[in-house]
Amino acid sequence: ISKLVNRVDFSKRPFQVWADKETYEAESVIISTGASSRMLGLDSEKKLLGHGVSTCATCDGFFFKGKEIVVVGGGDSAMEESTFLTKFANKVNVVHRRDKLRASKIMQERAQKNPKIEFIWDTIVEDIRDPSQQKVTAVQLKNIKTGKVAEKKCDGVFLAIGHEPNTKIFRGQITLDEKGYIATQENTQTSVKGVFAAGDC
C-alpha cells in the first residue's frame, strides 16, 4: 500500500503517522524519504520535465543520441553527468553561474579534457523553450556579470544543481542538519530513539 504521509508525532510512544485520512501507530519508524533534485524554479522547466528536461543523465541520456544538450551546474554531479552524456550527445554545454567549477580537481580535469564539452561561465538559465511544442528547442541565457541575454539552441536540458532532502515533515520532530538532512547517532538512530534513517541501517 502506498500512501502520502502528511504528519508525524514522535514525541511519545507509540509513534503516530498520519497518511491520507488514516492514522498509524508504531513502536519504531524507518524514514526513507530520500531527496529530490533541486530545480531552477521556472514554469517552462516544470512543463518540459520529461519532454527534454531531465535530472538524471543515466536515465535519459540515451534519448539524446546525436543531439546538443545543456547541463546546468558546476559540482561533481554536473561534471559526472556531462562526461556521461558525451557518450550520446554530439555536444554538451555546461552552464555555470560562477567563473570556476566547484567540482573536485579530478572531475574538473576529466570534463575539461573532453572535446565534446564546452563551458559557459557566469551564466544562468532564465527560460527554457518551447513548452508550446512540448519539447526543448533552446535556452535563454543571461550573463550575470554583463547582463547580456542570449538564446542558445539545444535539444535537452539536464539539471545537476544538487538535491533537497525530503524532510520538511520531520522538522521539530527529529534533529536535522543545516541542509535539512537527518542527523543520526551511532550511524543509524536519529535523535529520537526508535526512529531510524534507512540510508544508515
How would you describe this protein?
The chain has 201 residues and is of the alpha/beta class. The chain has helices spanning 43-48, 57-60, 76-85, 105-112; strands at 5-9, 15-19, 22-26, 29-31, 35-37, 53-54, 68-72, 91-95, 117-120, 123-129, 138-143, 149-153, 156-159, 163-165, 195-197. A five-stranded parallel beta sheet has the order 6-13-7-8-9. The protein has a three-stranded antiparallel beta sheet with strand order 1-2-3, with no helix packed on it. Strands 10-11-12 form a three-stranded antiparallel beta sheet. Strand 8, helix 4 (105-112) and strand 9 (117-120) form a beta-alpha-beta unit. Helix 3 packs parallel to helix 4 (105-112). The longest helix is centred in the middle third of the chain and has 10 residues, at 76-85. The protein is elongated. The two termini are 22 Å apart. The relative contact order is 0.21. The model has no long low-confidence stretch (mean pLDDT 94).
For the termini, the CA-CA separation is 22 Å
DSSP helical segment count: 4
Work out the number of β strands.
Answer: 15
Q: Are there runs of 5+ residues with pLDDT below 50, and where?
A: none
Proportion of residues in β-strands: 25-35%
Describe the sheet with the most strands. 5 strands, parallel
Q: Please bin the fraction of helical residues.
A: 10-25%
Query: Could you tell me the mean pLDDT?
Result: 94
Order of helices and strands: EEEEEHEHEHEHEEEEEEE
* Rg on CA atoms, Å: 21 Å
Spatially, the strands of the biggest sheet line up as: 6-13-7-8-9
